[in-house]
Automatic annotation (TrEMBL), chain A:
Pfam families: BPD_transp_1
CDD domains (UniProt xref): TM_PBP2
PANTHER family: ABC TRANSPORTER PERMEASE PROTEIN HI_0355-RELATED, ALKANE SULFONATE ABC TRANSPORTER-RELATED, MEMBRANE SUBUNIT
SUPFAM superfamilies assigned: MetI-like
Organism superkingdom: Bacteria
Domain ABC transmembrane type-1: 66-250
Native organism: Acuticoccus mangrovi
Upper taxonomic lineage: Bacteria, Pseudomonadati, Pseudomonadota, Alphaproteobacteria, Hyphomicrobiales
Gene Ontology, cellular component aspect: plasma membrane
GO biological process, one term: transmembrane transport
Subcellular location: Cell membrane
Family: Belongs to the binding-protein-dependent transport system permease family.
The protein, known as: ABC transporter permease
The entry's keywords: Cell membrane, Membrane, Transmembrane, Transmembrane helix, Transport
Automatic annotation (TrEMBL), chain B:
Keyword annotations of the record: ATP-binding, Nucleotide-binding, Transport
Domain of life: Bacteria
GO MF annotation list: ATP binding; ATP hydrolysis activity
ATP-binding in keyword set: yes
Sequence ranges assigned to domain ABC transporter in this UniProt record: 23-252
SMART domains, per database record: AAA (SM00382)
Organism: Acuticoccus mangrovi
Annotated Pfam families: ABC_tran
Full protein name: ABC transporter ATP-binding protein
Transmembrane segments: none
């Protein structure tokens, strides 16, 4: 599929040139507007933000804050995945329970999760756990619903094909249902990475003493727009990197699709 | 419309041992509204060892349901289904099913797909590779063992599915319009392939199709169904010489005669 013909490589190079050019143009416009059309107080400037990021990186603060945000998100993601998949499997095996639970699951799913924050802070404090649970509350439904949908979409003829050869339930689960579900699980993971970060940062905005969300909130309180934009930039990089990790895992687990 | 009584030609029972039979077998589904719906009504059917039987009939007459009952994938509602001398309650040993769709696993190569049947019939791992190579050779797929289903043609996919069926090594082949989705040319080639393989092993085949010419050209016996509710309307013993050349056999006047009779039996007399 990825045969390296010259024209394809050429297109890739051009694409990256285009992307870099777009980035540079946006930064230049930002820099140009800053301090001339719009007061630097409101939009800071790329140079100031880069300086701040550098300082934060050198002092170790960047890693200190980013690692907190990422850990909370990852732990919430992992917990949400495990619980979501297990409950999804259970509901698939117990259709009667699934039917009964459906309105409640959809009700919880529709609940604005931010409204749970006060409860989580009350229960879990302002440390790691409340953010993990916040991320979890966003992620768990995505995995639950995708697991159920993925199991429903397994080709019935393929199940019958295996049954006709007297395959055990475990064999069918291992050789057919799990591989059939992988795309659903990865699509859940892709959506969930962003959601877990939202949960993690949301938790930090509402009460924390570290993390990129806390840093942004802190900067805003001191009218430090440079710090605010630096925090946002760092968050964006973190989100992009996490998405890349999912992409790599996906290519590794499903190389042929 | 053809008169029932004249069409229901009774035939002498085959002398060979019975591979599978259905005794007063009915299938009743519950439709979405909750009402019982009889899709098969008291089917009596007996299949001899080494017999090639086709079932034709209009869509919805329950011919696929007959196959599902014989395969044990769907339990019978009333009556009995006996395969290999034993009444079945689930998929019995030695029965292979082939669908209209290839049902190959899309993430597995042709070889890996065939390997599944070998795993399931208990072929020792050491023998699988050789057996796969044999089957690929037999089906003209030698160069395509490492291809994914998405990267080969529909005809080749169905051929790979046939390879998987052969790998499983059943005594009874249940084939539900296996070539129904193929173009006329590929269909003919596949039919020829099937006959060649069948005449080498002489297993029993129940072949469901809506193509009357296909049924007559392949089979020893053709059953015509009607419905719903599905019933056997008539049956025809096809006394055409074997081995058959699928193109030559179609030129024979007897062949045309069988087809005409079945056509008019189904109700296409104008």
């Amino acid at each position: 599929m990825t045969t390296k013909t010259p024209s394809k490589t050429g297109r890739r190079v051009r694409l990256w040139v285009d992307r870099t050019a777009l980035f540079v143009a946006a930064v230049l416009i930002w820099q140009g507007l800053s301090g001339t059309v719009i007061n630097t107080f409101w939009i800071s400037s790329p140079v100031l933000v880069a300086e701040r990021l550098w300082q934060l990186a050198v002092s170790g603060a960047l890693v200190w804050h980013a690692s907190a945000t990422v850990w909370q998100a990852l732990l919430g993601l992992l917990l949400g995945m495990v619980v979501g998949v297990v409950v999804g499997l259970a509901l698939h095996v117990l259709p009667r329970l699934a039917e009964a639970a459906d309105p409640y699951i959809m009700g919880l799913y529709s609940l604005p999760r931010i409204a749970l924050a006060p409860l989580f802070i009350l229960y879990f404090g302002i440390g790691l756990l409340s953010k993990v649970m916040m991320a979890f509350s966003f992620v768990v439904f995505i995995f639950l619903l995708n697991t159920m949908q993925g199991l429903r979409e397994v080709d019935q003829d393929q199940i019958d094909m295996m049954r006709s050869m007297r395959a055990s339930r475990l064999y069918i689960a291992r050789k057919l249902q799990l591989p059939s579900m992988l795309p659903w699980l990865f699509s859940a993971a892709r959506i969930s990475v962003g959601l877990a970060l939202i949960g993690s940062v949301l938790g930090e905005l509402l009460g924390a003493n570290r993390g990129l969300g806390w840093y942004i909130e802190h900067a805003s309180g001191r009218l430090d727009t440079t710090g605010l934009f630096a925090g946002l930039a760092a968050l964006m990089v973190v989100a992009v990197l996490l998405n890349q990790v999912v992409n790599i895992l996906e290519r590794w687990a499903m190389p042929v699709r | 419309m053809v008169d029932h009584a004249t069409a229901a030609a009774t035939s002498p029972a085959p002398a060979a041992p019975v591979r599978a039979k259905m005794v007063q077998a009915s299938k009743i589904y519950t439709d979405p509204a909750g009402a019982p719906k009889r899709v098969l009504d008291r089917i009596d059917l007996s299949l001899a060892e080494r017999e090639f039987l086709s079932i034709v009939g209009p869509s919805g007459c329950g011919k696929s349901t007959v196959l599902r009952l014989l395969s044990g994938l769907t339990p019978v509602s009333e009556g009995r289904v006996v395969v290999g001398g034993e009444e079945i309650t689930g998929p019995p040993k030695g029965v292979g099913f082939m669908f209209q769709r290839d049902t190959l696993l899309p993430w597995a190569t042709v070889s890996q797909n065939i390997s599944i049947a070998l795993e399931l019939n208990g072929t020792p791992p050491a023998e699988r590779k050789g057996r796969i190579a044999e089957l690929l050779q037999l089906l003209g797929l030698s160069q395509f063992g490492d291809y994914l289903p998405a990267h080969i043609s529909g005809g080749m996919r169905q051929r790979a599915a046939l390879g998987r069926l052969l790998a499983y090594g059943p005594e009874l082949y249940l084939m539900d319009e296996p070539f129904g989705a193929l173009d006329a040319m590929t269909k003919m080639t596949m039919g020829r392939e099937l006959l060649r393989i069948w005449s080498g092993h002489e297993k029993s085949v129940v072949f469901v199709t809506h193509d009357i010419e296909e049924a007559v050209s392949l089979s020893d016996r053709v059953i015509v169904m009607e419905g719903p509710p599905g019933r056997i309307r008539s049956e025809y013993h096809i006394d055409l010489p074997r081995p058959r050349d699928l193109r030559e056999v179609r030129k024979m006047p007897e062949f045309r005669d069988y087809c005409d009779r079945i056509w008019s039996d189904i109700g296409y007399s104008g």
